[in-house]
Specification:
By secondary structure, the protein is α+β, with helices and mostly antiparallel strands. The chain is built from nine helices and 18 strands. Helix 5 runs antiparallel to helix 6.
Length: 337
């Protein structure tokens, strides 16, 4: 006799144990129901399995060595001409009891082997100033990472979740999988999705961080023990979060503006000079400092392609003459005054 069942039986047995532990997915539950409907003896066997499980023999035979000992003892007992005295099963045949224990023991061993948690290995993709990169994760998700950003991700996603972390900006096209949510941790909060397209703007020096949704639906989860849902976004919505105060709000925005950097453009609509300076800093690698706080609230509507930074600043000065600028090439800084 083989010490372990053949692979097909292993899979079936594992499903039955997961059924007893209430751990089946919807598709696995359908497989078990089809198996039960196939033969009446399958229902009888599952009844015996449930009885054996409830009698706590499961806990006695958790280790592999115990499993092998239990298998040997059950072989001896199956060969006995009659069931032991005081059997708690009444009309249940002893062979059903023995077979049920065998399934629990062997499926328990294989279930532990299959669900062993291995320490994941992580990779990271980091971009420099003026550099963008595209990455395909092993689930089929496409990520376009903007400049001065870092995406950290496991080499292999686990069976329940698909978790990554981001510092900077990236655009995600998430492969749909309702049984394994995709989550992006940006420090301030976590974005949870099933399958969608969205942009995350979370550079470390920003006071505000943003999540804009292009397609599908996402949840914004706070990074506390309570994991409270802060907001649920629909297409065209942008979630803005203040890192200093914890305050947040949602507004409707132009979906093309959310991810304009994908096409090499920067679309600025009704944005303040403070915000424009931040975006120019990320794009051109110069630290832009607003020396005069009175000009920080000025708003602009401009589209930037690949013009040099000095040309853009000259256009800003033309639109608002009160905004002057000076380059400090030694420290790679621009002063707006």
């Amino acid at each position: 006799m083989e010490k372990f069942p053949k692979m097909m039986n292993e899979i079936n047995n594992i499903l039955l144990v997961k059924y007893l532990r209430n751990e089946l997915t919807d598709s696995e539950r359908e497989d078990v129901l089809r198996w039960l409907a196939d033969k009446e003896e399958n229902k009888e066997f599952l009844f015996g399995l449930k009885e054996a499980y409830q009698l706590s023999r499961w806990e006695e035979l958790q280790s592999r060595s115990d499993a092998e000992t239990g298998w040997r003892k059950l072989n001896e007992q199956i060969g006995q001409p009659s069931k032991p005295k005081g059997s708690p099963f009444g009309v249940l045949r002893w062979w059903q009891y023995a077979a049920a224990i065998v399934v629990l023991v062997m499926a328990g061993f294989w279930l532990r082997e299959l669900t062993k948690v291995e320490k994941p290995t992580f990779n990271s993709l980091e971009t420099a100033s003026g550099e963008q990169s595209t990455l395909y994760l092993n689930d089929g998700t496409k990520v376009k990472v903007n400049e001065n950003s870092k995406l950290t991700y496991p080499s292999q996603f686990d069976r329940k979740n698909r978790n990554v972390s981001l510092r900077g900006e990236a655009y995600f096209e998430v492969a749909h999988n309702p049984e394994r949510p995709f989550q992006v941790n940006i420090g301030a909060y976590t974005i949870r999705v099933l399958g969608t397209k969205f942009n995350v703007d979370a550079y470390p020096d920003q006071i505000y961080v943003y999540t804009g949704l292009k397609e599908g639906k996402v949840q914004i989860i706070d990074n506390t023990k309570e994991a409270k849902v802060l907001s649920e976004l629909r297409p065209g919505m942008q979630f803005s979060y203040n890192r200093r105060t914890g305050e947040y709000f949602v507004k409707l925005v132009d979906v093309n503006q959310m991810s304009d950097w994908l096409g090499g453009q920067m679309i600025i609509k009704r944005q303040t000079l403070d915000e424009v300076a931040r975006r120019l800093t990320e794009k051109y690698g110069y630290k832009i400092v607003i020396q005069n706080p009175k000009i920080g609230g000025l708003t602009y509507n401009i589209t930037i392609d690949k013009e040099p930074l000095e040309e853009i600043l000259s256009n800003i000065h033309f639109i608002t003459p009160q905004v002057g600028y000076a380059f400090d090439e030694k420290h790679k800084t621009v002063i707006l005054r």
